[in-house]
Specification:
about 450 residues, binds (2S)-amino(hydroxy)ethanoic acid, 12 helices, 2 domains, 9-stranded mixed sheet, Aminopeptidase, binds manganese (II) ion, Alpha-Beta Plaits, alpha+beta
């Protein structure tokens, strides 16, 4: 790597010797995790709730302490930028700080706080990179309260208008635009946002692979496709004691049958196909009443778009058959549908190269979870860095990643970002010079 010099350094300095402050990172993860903190650990900061507002305010305060250029856009995405030597498109890092209801303190938060840590490390070193460095947190990545997921970054890249997003209604009935106003994060910066030179997101793996194989860094090659549907099953409520089984039109039974079908379908299609019925809501949900209706969600994912479409078609076919045989109606509404994404090959090579240069073990892998990087990849080269999840657990208060692993991931992020930040506009090739054109290690 050419020695990165800047006006205020002599030739002996190379920012590639910089390392992040792991203790400062851990302190911030814990402090942010206390907002919406749950009994037994973890936190609940559903998008645009009071807890999300409090978490946002804390991170914005940390950004302001570094005197960064902070912008809030029309969907509540927040970017904070450290100026570079030249006013070029920034190198962007980031993720999300909203969580699911039984969330951990690392999902999303790690990507935002390591981005902040990278910027603080660079700023405090006195080195000024060629390009600006930006850290962002995007609104409603989880999609648990307002579907779809990755909503803020979807609007940031222009795939949905802020106005359309403002009219989305939450599972609790609130309108997104009203909640954005209520928590004071309906910003004036227009959407879509400025496309960065490149986007790099650090995230916990949220699965068992890195820990099982004792690998330090996941070099993420892409994100699998996601299909979210809400099915409303309508039958006839009836007395649980007096209604013969042959006369029932029972949405509760049909909901359960669909959940079993989704499991069997995933097993039949084999890995990486996954299928989840995560929410089942019966009405009136009483012990002695055959339900009038059932509302369930179905989450199907696969790295292969064709197989994902096949899974969706099989589910539709099953619903048609069981609606017919059980005398119910089933209405399906799509809540999210994103095709699989492949990240920028040169950027993926750079993540792998920088991790190895730090003496860390690596393995390439797709992401099972959705991430903001998959949206940013529509407008800029994007890639992700994974760090291990203890017991592969996430979306669970027991979610944990060791401080040393967080620090490793943050230092890989720092090195990748410093390489990107030194590139002129003509440099579309993000491969580090040491890598020969095949993108592999030079011998
Ligand atoms: O659902 C997901 O994959 C992400 O956590 N939003
Ligand atoms: Mn996440
Ligand atoms: Mn998540």
């Amino acid at each position: 790597m050419s020695k990165l010099t800047a006006p205020n350094f002599d030739d002996s300095f190379s920012p590639h010797r910089l390392r992040i402050d792991g203790d400062r990172l851990t302190r911030r993860l814990v402090e942010l995790g206390e907002i919406g903190g749950l009994e037994g650990g973890g936190c609940a900061r559903l998008a645009l709730t009071d807890e999300d507002k409090e978490g946002r305010n804390l991170v914005v305060a940390w950004m302001a302490e570094l005197d960064l250029d902070i912008r809030i856009d029309a969907i509540g995405n927040v970017t904070a930028t450290l100026p570079g030597r030249e006013d070029l498109d920034p190198v962007m890092m980031g993720s999300h700080i909203d969580t699911v209801q039984t969330g951990g303190i690392y999902d999303g938060n790690l990507g935002v706080l390591t981005g902040l840590e990278v910027i603080e490390t660079v700023k405090k070193s006195g080195f000024v990179p060629r390009r600006p460095l930006t850290v962002a947190f995007f609104t409603d990545e989880e999609g648990a309260r307002f579907a779809p997921d990755m909503l803020g970054s979807l609007v940031y890249v222009g795939a949905m208008s802020a106005e359309e997003a403002h009219d989305i209604v939450a599972i609790d009935g609130a309108r997104l635009g009203d909640e954005l106003e209520r928590i004071g994060y309906h910003g004036s910066t227009p959407c879509p946002g400025r496309a960065p030179h490149a986007f790099v997101e650090l995230h916990i793996e949220q699965g068992p692979v890195l820990e099982r194989e004792a690998i330090d860094i996941g070099v993420v090659t892409g994100v699998q496709g996601i299909s979210w549907q809400q099915l409303t099953i309508t039958g006839q409520s009836a007395h649980a004691g007096t209604t013969p089984m042959t006369l029932r039109r029972d949405p509760g039974y049909v909901a359960a049958a669909i959940a079993v079908f989704v499991r069997r379908l995933a097993e039949e299609l084999g890995e990486p196909q996954v299928g989840t019925v995560g929410a089942i809501d019966l009405h009136p949900n009483l012990i002695n009443v055959v339900p009038a209706s059932a509302t369930i969600t179905v989450d199907l994912r696969n790295t292969d778009e064709q197989i994902l479409q096949k899974a969706e078609a099989r589910l539709t076919e099953f619903c048609q058959e069981i609606a017919e045989s059980e005398g119910v109606t089933i209405e399906a509404v799509s809540l999210a549908r994103f095709e699989p994404v492949e990240f920028n090959e040169q950027l993926v090579d750079s993540v792998e190269h920088q991790a190895k240069a730090l003496g860390l073990s690596t393995r390439r892998m797709p992401s099972g979870a959705g991430h903001d990087a998959q949206m940013l990849s529509r407008v800029a080269p994007a890639a992700m860095v994974f760090v291990p999840s203890v017991n592969g657990i996430s979306h669970n208060i027991a979610e944990f990643t060791k401080p040393a692993d967080n620090e490793n991931g943050a230092n890989v992020l720092l090195q990748v970002v410093l390489s990107l930040a030194d590139q002129a506009d003509t440099d579309t090739d993000t491969t580090p010079p040491e890598l020969n054109q095949s993108g592999k290690e030079s011998s």
